Amino acid sequence: MEWSKGISAEYYACYVDPVSWRDAERFEIKKGSISKVGDGLRETADITCTSYETNVERWIRVYIIAKQGADIEREALFTGMTSCPQIDKDGTYSEYPLECYSVLKPCDDLPLQRGWYAPSGSSGGMIIERLLKPTPAPVIIEGESPLLTQSIVAEDKETHLTMIDKILEIINWRLYIDGNGTIHVTPKSKEIVATFGINYDIMETSINIEYDWYKCPNVVSVTSDGVTAIAKDESPDSPLSTVRRGREVWKIESDSDMNDGEGLVEYTFRKLREEQAYLTKISYDRRFEPNVHVGDVIYLDYPEREGEQWLVGKYVVETQDLELSYGITVSEDVYREN
């Protein structure tokens, strides 16, 4: 099915057996939305159904049935745990709004014991796999993960999930959940998984662009062994420079992490360049594509504006919001460092 050509959609859900991870009884849903981010629980969903057993916590899976001419496909959109069931009554008619949380909820609810630590030299992926044991969801560690270069000790109120996020940051990997609820722990990739743009008949023409300069300095001062080096951006061609901004924005470091053979002045100017890598964030609506996840790299190809290339290049998917409407709409935020 060519998802970019548009579809009509219907939706339903199934209860999930937490032991076999297979669908059990089907039930109908009227409407809903799914939100996806890059950390924490990663996914939440709000759905409304016509019947639901409110006195028990359940695992569910939400499906789309997509139709495009004679083609019909079914895709799982979300698998998770229901919470906070409600009943809305209008005479004899009842609706059941459900708040749903991702398969990571058991890991978020379980604290680590005092004194727990991930030892230096251990595989980050293997530690994460053990920390994911509280969830019944399948786990796939994609490749051989880096070893931890230092021990990580659990802090007060540390949970399995907060420790997972710490380890992911240290080894520079990511975690995402597919529609069936399988947890993928994988290296961050720079490979392009999809191309979006209004010329590809998948993206709406209305977009929002945000340039996040708030934390970007134009002066960096680094002190090491009693010696201080200062790097300034005074270029009239730089949008963040002291000239263009008309003011100085300082970042001061009392410690340095110099590479082998790198001097203090060289390090300070490198640090200035790194700190000025401001984010360009773009928000838009598009048609649904089942194989694009938060953390994936997409190629954005927006048309020329007054003869110049505009918004063309690689961007990383930061958030996704799926509205379970007639044609399923995806509101997406992407970013890149400049």
Question: How does this model look, in words?
Answer:
The chain is mostly beta strands and 338 residues long. The protein has four domains: 3-102, Beta Barrel (Thrombin, subunit H), CATH 2.40.10; 106-187, Baseplate protein-like domains (Phage tail protein beta-alpha-beta fold), CATH 3.55.50; 192-212 and 279-337, Elongation Factor Tu (Ef-tu), domain 3, CATH 2.40.30; 219-275, no CATH class. The chain is built from five helices and 21 strands. The protein has helices at residues 105-109, 124-131, 160-171, 242-245, 264-275; strands spanning 8-16, 23-36, 43-49, 59-68, 71-83, 88-90, 93-102, 117-118, 139-141, 152-153, 173-177, 183-187, 192-196, 203-212, 219-224, 227-232, 250-253, 279-287, 297-301, 312-323, 329-337. A six-stranded antiparallel β-barrel has the order 1-2-3-7-5-4. A three-stranded mixed β-sheet has the order 9-12-11. A three-stranded mixed β-sheet has the order 16-15-17. Strand 11 and strand 12 form a beta hairpin. Helix 2 (124-131) runs antiparallel to helix 3. It starts with 7 loop residues before the first strand and ends with a strand.
